[in-house]
Each structure stands twice: as structure tokens, then as C-alpha cells.
Amino acid sequence: MLNRILFQSRLSECMDERASVENALKAYAEGFDYSRKSVDIATEVHCASY
Questions:
Q1: How far apart are CA 44 and CA 38, in angstroms?
Q2: What CA–CA distance (Å, rounded) separates 46 from 50?
Q3: How is the chain split into domains, by residue range?
Q4: From CA 8, how far away is CA 4, in angstroms rounded?
Q5: How far is 33 from 48, CA to CA, in rounded Å?
Q6: What is the CB-side half-sphere exposure of residue 18 using CA atoms within 13 A?
Q7: What tens digit of pLDDT does each residue of 1-50 get?
Q8: What three-state secondary structure class fits 49?
Q9: Which DSSP letter does residue 50 get?
């Protein structure tokens, strides 16, 4: 019984850790996408000025 409780808590810790890693990766990917869009906009503005 005690082993099962320990296993459950260990499992939920792993799930939390995995979720935080996934969130961090998602935020990083969104940030990367955002910076890429701003580069695209800057390029468009630069090309339009010629």
C-alpha cells in the first residue's frame, strides 16, 4: 500500500515535470515564431522602402 502511494506521488511529480518541460518548449516555440514574424515584417518594410 505504501509503495503504491509513493509510486503515485513519484508518477505525479514526473507528470508535473514533463508538463513544465512541454510548457517551456511551447513558450520557446511561440517566442521563436513571434521573432520570426517580426523579422518577416521588418524584411517586408525594408523591401517596400525601395
A1: 10
A2: 7
A3: 16-50
A4: 6
A5: 22
A6: 6
A7: 677 766 777 767 767 777 887 888 888 777 777 667 777 877 777 777 66
A8: coil
A9: -
